[in-house]
Amino acid sequence: MNPHITIDGVSRYEDVNKINALINHESVNRWTTFGENVDVSGVMESGRALFLGDEHGGFLVFNEGEGVWSVHTQFLKGHRSNALEKAKNGIAWMFVNTDCIALVTFVQYENLAAKNLSLASGMTFVRDDEQMGKKGEIFCINIKDWVRLICQ
User: pLDDT for 123-144, tens place per residue?
Assistant: First the structure.
């Protein structure tokens, strides 16, 4: 039995082989800060990461500790049309089903689609940053701001 609540089609996906294939696909990997030939098997099995989506795309989320999770968008080309709806539902899923009190994401300056998705889903700009040699911006949504958004 899955103790997690499914929110409007968003649920935990656990096929690690398909997740690894998705993350390493050329149409996804060009923006990732993870590098090439990524294998998330260990962090997924340890419970430090989870994936919300399916073999066509979704959100890889890492537990950074103390209720903070980092989110990384992973959609194949051709499967991005409902990414905003899935992002909003994924945020809800995280706040309802985990200890998450804040979701953060790093977006490279050149990745305008990810920046727009972050802002449209309710995240706000935090600061400029550099991760793994790539320059970009940090965006965040916390549980208080999420509750404010859904109550409007």
Answer: 999 999 999 888 999 999 999 9
